Amino acid sequence: MAEQPLFDIEEIVRESFDEEGQEQLTEKLSQREPEEVALALEAMPVEQRVTTWQSLPPENQIEALTFMRVDARENIFKQIDDDQLFQLVENIDVDDLLELLDELPPAVYHYAASRLDESQRRWLDTALTYDDEQCGRYADHDLLIINRNAKVRDAIRLFRKLTDEAEYQDSLFVVDRTGRYVGLIQASQLLGVGSHTSIDSFIDSDAPVVEGNMDLDDGSDLVYRSGYTALAVVDADGKLLGRMSIGEAMENMRRSMESQFMHTAGLDEDEDLFAPVVDSAKRRAVWLGINLLTAFLAAWTIGLFEATLEQVVALAVLMPIVASMGGIAGSQTLTLMIRGLALDQIGPKTYFTLLYKELGVAAINGLIWAIVIAAITYLWFGDMIIGIVIGIAIIINILIAAVSGVFIPILLDKLKIDPALSGPVILTTVTDVIGFFAFLGLGTLMLLN
Amino acid sequence: MAEQPLFDIEEIVRESFDEEGQEQLTEKLSQREPEEVALALEAMPVEQRVTTWQSLPPENQIEALTFMRVDARENIFKQIDDDQLFQLVENIDVDDLLELLDELPPAVYHYAASRLDESQRRWLDTALTYDDEQCGRYADHDLLIINRNAKVRDAIRLFRKLTDEAEYQDSLFVVDRTGRYVGLIQASQLLGVGSHTSIDSFIDSDAPVVEGNMDLDDGSDLVYRSGYTALAVVDADGKLLGRMSIGEAMENMRRSMESQFMHTAGLDEDEDLFAPVVDSAKRRAVWLGINLLTAFLAAWTIGLFEATLEQVVALAVLMPIVASMGGIAGSQTLTLMIRGLALDQIGPKTYFTLLYKELGVAAINGLIWAIVIAAITYLWFGDMIIGIVIGIAIIINILIAAVSGVFIPILLDKLKIDPALSGPVILTTVTDVIGFFAFLGLGTLMLLN
Predict the structure, then answer these.
(1) Which of B90, B62, B57 minimizes the C-alpha distance to B77?
(2) What CATH number should be reported for the domain holding residue B169?
(3) Sheet of A144-147, strand order
(4) Which of A95, A130, A165 is a domain's end point?
(5) Roughly how many angstroms between the first and final C-alpha of chain B, as a whole number?
(6) Alpha-carbon gap: A114 to the closest alpha carbon of chain B (Å)
């Protein structure tokens, strides 16, 4: 039976700090899957990361890099000299090269490309006709291809050549003489079939096909839903470009969901835990700047009511409550909408059903919490009117938050702006400005006369 | 070549509103994968969802339900009467029953269980010894099992029995006489092997094994990283319980990442877009209540400085800026930490490296934005000291936000509380209270003397 399979990243990181144990660590890592090595390297501060990575055997070095998030990978490249980079890519294959392309210095990339054999060069050129959000760019070229005129024994010969490291290779991809994809054959279909039989009658041409210009997310969904372990990726003429395996589909899905999560804080899914301070500061500064604009807008709204605040200072004390309740209620609607949009579950036919539902929820919660907050305010400041003012402001702000939570992400999505990235900032601006305006405006009307 | 494979949920939803086109819609849906049907049903308001679901053939009804998010599924169950439920589960298999178990009325569940055959009943009893976060609970019982003494022809016979719908079934799971798992055999290994040969020498016993009591996330990672299309799930004695396929691993990963995303807004990954208003309002009320507590804490902090605010109303105007900048900076650190913790990439050895890095980032951004904000404040209010006060408060709050962003999630994780759910609320409380306290406190010291 296999040994304890779970991978302890914490232990690996601890050992990377121990210079004398480096040899054992290398030994341990070279037995693990590249996904795991990549996770462990990302979990190390840059110094330990580079040392540990350099101690790996060359083939594992490249493998680990391809599984690392871009920034973490880049922070290794920055620490090693060009000589080592040239050496590293000496025997790189086309798939790994495509994965690392954007982070390699141009000279290193050209050297690597020049060392590919002719068929790999052709793959490279074709892949580069697609952009880096398209399936054609990342079609996996490690696949078993067979001509439709072949016999079962040819198929068997192909499967025999698979090494132990072959992943999700239970199918042959069948092409015609011109290289057009015809269908696939699963290994189990050929069991017990005479070796001189033609493969033709075993071809499964019902399997869906990933188009090269399909978006990575769509292609990954297609592979996942198809139930096949890999699908063919084809160009506009139906020529076989490569395959997308379920492993790649899963990696794409992970990346896409991680990016959604990180975007809500204005970060990128490639953000490195141990990025250099200055790099990190630069990237985050932009986000803080954008948020500062919205904060000043809120402050400006408050500024309109300086005269009121001077007379009723309780309003200044209470105003964050109004803004905060609107912000929280709105972000719940927003989050639900962002997920729905990501899953393509929201369309014009249901915009208003969603709006009415969210308004219903907002009305109930607005009313309940308005009463609670009004009561507490009355007890705190002994002033019934301030209680009424804050209660009404809360109801208004939570209702507006519901409308904004529904329509801001729909609008952003239509404009092809990621609602996970921009939605929260815009929503907060709305709930802050409306919250302060409603509360201080009502306060001015009801308390100053 | 296969027809246009992309699935247009919007079109399906539109058609579900058209009562006369129901027949065509049913026809269209019964040709799609159950994952897709589930997504489309979730995207419909409850009325359309129920009608459309009811029009599906019985076997598709159950399949679609098992792929739906729990709340969306439950909202179908609520609309149909018990008779239909009893009919629905008449021929349900054990895996689907385990998936729907929590939403079925007890009487319906017992009826369904009573109709399972003996071997399925045994699977059910064993599965129920595991809780619903463990791999043993959801082991897939649709797998090819073979005795280690069998011959290749027996293996071929098993593969032949597979239907077109079999997914990720390229391996046999080999057991000994007592039902203990020994290893697996991939179909391609047996190609061209004589039918009387014993299967023994083809057994791959290096494939990792998923333990029944393993957490679903860990099991899914294991399947993904292994590169196999499915791994055996075994009990504490090594007996084969079933398998976990890469498809299930992917579904688990999706669910787990979705839950992280939804938790940041206090929602559940099972939240239904079209949940009944009252249900939704109830669930969200709790989250608003928790956030209200923190808002009152912030208000109370401001209340400490009423006397100051009465004299310098500019402080009231500016105070949201201080709180907001701290909140944004902190949430960036927090988000990075939450991802790191979810990937097990953060341990004691690097706590302080992370802290120093985040403090470095905070120092740079704190300083830059403090200067900008101080300058704008000076221009706005023409008072240098207010500018200095807000500048210092910004720096303090951003630094505190960095410390909190690093340690709040670590602490929550140690306490086994989901940092994605509770982290943002606690962080906002800290940055609000510290922000208001620093700003108004400094204001009191520097402006009132």
Answers:
(1) B62
(2) 3.10.580.10
(3) A144-147, A171-175, A181-186
(4) A130
(5) 83
(6) 31
| Distance, CA of B399 to CA of B255 (rounded, Å) | 34
Chain A's closest residue to B345, CA to CA, is: A43
Contact A105, A81 (CB under 8 A): no
Question: Quick one: A14 and A124 in the same domain?
Answer: yes
Which residues are registered as beta bridge partners of A173? A145, A184
- DSSP assignment, residue A22? H
Question: How does pLDDT run across B310-338, given as a tens digit for each residue?
Answer: 999 999 999 999 999 999 999 999 999 99
- Is B155 in contact with A191 (Cβ distance < 8 A)? yes
Compute the average pLDDT of residues A389-412: 98
Tell me, rounded to whole angstroms, the distance of Cα B343 from its chain centroid.
14
Q: Between chains, do B287 and A332 touch, taking CB under 8 Å as contact?
A: yes
Q: Indicate if A319 and A431 belong to the same structural domain.
A: yes
- By Cβ distance, the residue of A43, A281, A332 closest to B364 is A281
* ipTM value for the complex: 0.93
If contacts are CB pairs under 8 Å, which of residues 86-145 in chain A contact chain B?
Answer: none
Q: Please give the residue range of the domain that contains residue A402.
A: 277-447
3-state secondary structure of B147: strand
Q: Is residue A359 part of a domain?
A: yes
Average pLDDT, chain A: 94
What CATH number is attached to the domain comprising B18?
A: 1.25.60.10
Alpha helices in B304-350 (DSSP H): 306-311, 313-342
d(CA B333, CA B406): 7
Q: Do both B344 and B208 map to the same domain? A: no
> Which residue does chain A place closest to B185, by CA atoms?
A188
- In this structure, what CATH number is given to the domain that contains residue A399? 1.10.357.20
Q: How long is chain B?
A: 449
Q: Are residues B290 and B434 in the same domain?
A: yes
pTM for this predicted structure: 0.93
Express each pLDDT in B389-439 by its tens digit: 999 999 999 999 999 999 999 999 999 999 999 999 999 999 999 999 999
Does A118 share its domain with A229?
Answer: no
Question: Token pair 């149909």 is at which residue?
Answer: B80
Q: What angle do CA B290, B294, B299 make, to 5 degrees?
A: 140
Contact with chain B for residue A250, Cβ under 8 A: yes
Strand partners, A184: A173, A204
* For testing contact with chain A, the best of B17, B32, B191 (most A CBs within 10 A): B191
Interface check B329 vs A, CB under 8 A: yes
Q: Which of B209, B237, B261 is the last residue of a domain?
A: B261
Domain count, chain A: 3
Amino acid at B184: L
Residue B289 DSSP SS3: helix
Are residues B65 and B100 in contact, defined by beta-carbon separation less than 8 angstroms? yes
Residues 6+ apart with CB under 8 A from A309: A302, A315, A316, A440, B309, B313, B316, B317
* Pair (B15, B123) in one structural domain: yes
Parallel/antiparallel/unpaired status of strands B171-175 and B210-211: unpaired
